[in-house]
Amino acid sequence: MKLCLYCGTFNPIHNAHIAVANYVKSNFDFDLILFIPSYIPPHKNIDKILANHRFNMVKLALEDYSSFKVSDIEFKSEQNSYTYNTIKKLYELYNDIDNKINFIIGTDAFRNIEHWYRAEELKNLVEFIVFVRENDFKSEDFEILREKGYNFKFTKMPFVNISSTNIRNYIKNNQSISNLLPEKVENYIIRNGLYKNENN
């Protein structure tokens, strides 16, 4: 099985996330793209109360996609969501993986990959699919990582300028979020009154 991971806070999941997953599925022919919402992101300050909501929204967003699934692997641990630990567990759960697990990441996060938890071991477990997230991107800036043993490839998908931060701000300011998220997710946010105040 060819497995690719899409990890993140998904706070909330939006149409750009889905576009990225669709692009990867179409261009790299994975059997499964596994969305893994983080329970406690180690480098972000996110209200734990929102954790279950974030998971539920991802689940709703993926209902119409047979090749996309959501995993609660980081929720079960109820600890900081370190990618290395998650990858190790996934190799135990999926014993029919072809070659290595692939991992979707943006250039902004990939620049700091060496500072991730147990990065020296992590780089031997995955192949990175790197999405360009800046206008002044230069592939040669990342060659030092290849020399250090990181396996990665860049994608050519045009950058989709939608961010969870902006969506949360739009909601707080009573601005429209139409066409930014899957309809089921938008309805869930409205129904549960999410992101209406500074605490979520």
Give an overview in words.
With 200 residues, the protein is an alpha/beta fold. The protein has one domain: Rossmann fold, CATH 3.40.50. The chain has nine helices and six strands. The chain has helices spanning 15-28, 51-61, 73-77, 83-93, 107-110, 119-122, 143-147, 164-172, 183-192, and strands at residues 3-8, 32-37, 68-70, 101-106, 126-131, 152-154. The chain has a six-stranded parallel sheet, sandwiched between helices. The protein is globular, with a radius of gyration of 17 Å.
**Average pLDDT for all residues:** 92
Cα shape: globular
Strand content: 15-25%
Give me the Rg, rounded: 17 Å
How many helix segments? 9
Largest sheet, spatial ordering of strands: 3-2-1-4-5-6
Secondary structure tally: strands: 6
**CATH superfamily membership:** HUPs
Under CATH, the topology can be stated as: Rossmann fold
Proportion in helices: 25-40%
The helix/strand class is alpha/beta
Low-confidence stretches: none
**What's the architecture in CATH terms?**
3-Layer(aba) Sandwich
Head-to-tail CA distance between termini: 38 Å
The total number of structural domains is: 1
* CATH uppermost class: Alpha Beta
What is the N-to-C succession of helices and strands? Answer: EHEHEHHEHHEHEHH
Main beta sheet: 6 strands, parallel
